[in-house]
């Protein structure tokens, strides 16, 4: 482990020893065995920082990643006080919580179809004190037409054929349903593009994390469905990572 990871590991051991009464040595051996088996450090520690917010992480949802922190950054640059925001497929709640805590008094809802992920998100909402409404729904089920100012999503976008090429730690320990939406990997992003166009108000924004090879196809799809100002923003490694699009009809006040 790197020095910082060793520090986090030692802190996790100390916390668990204090809360359980077990010796630190015994707990350390148990956690080290999990690491030796290939389990991601984030799951072994049980918590992880996302944009400075300490979140509980476990096998119920994907590990929050740095690329997704940048997705949040794009949303924060566009939102205004009082906007209604939906985080589709909220998972651990990392995106919704960050927007609620960092944004200008936003009305944030996080949705997920998986009750286990939603339970994890609820734990994180309670722990952080974020004002987030959580609902169980598939995609945009139950969302009223023209009711949202912003849709943000990190949908599953890995093609089925790419699954076996992923890091074993991802394949073995992270939930496949949150990574692979179908054969092409485009099924998730396409569902978001199609659903958001109904739920967004005129001038509303769509922000979505995508696979690095999907940008051209999804820009074409969003444009064909009527979105304007469609762009793909790159991550810090230079990879196409965030689709940004606006539903037409923006007024001067909303711009």
TrEMBL record:
This is peptide chain release factor N(5)-glutamine methyltransferase. It comes from the Bacteria. One of its GO terms (biological process) is methylation. Residues 68-162 form the Methyltransferase small domain. It catalyses: L-glutaminyl-[peptide chain release factor] + S-adenosyl-L-methionine = N(5)-methyl-L-glutaminyl-[peptide chain release factor] + S-adenosyl-L-homocysteine + H(+). GO terms for molecular function: nucleic acid binding; peptide chain release factor N(5)-glutamine methyltransferase activity. Keywords: Methyltransferase, S-adenosyl-L-methionine, Transferase. CDD domains: AdoMet_MTases (cd02440). Its EC number is 2.1.1.297.
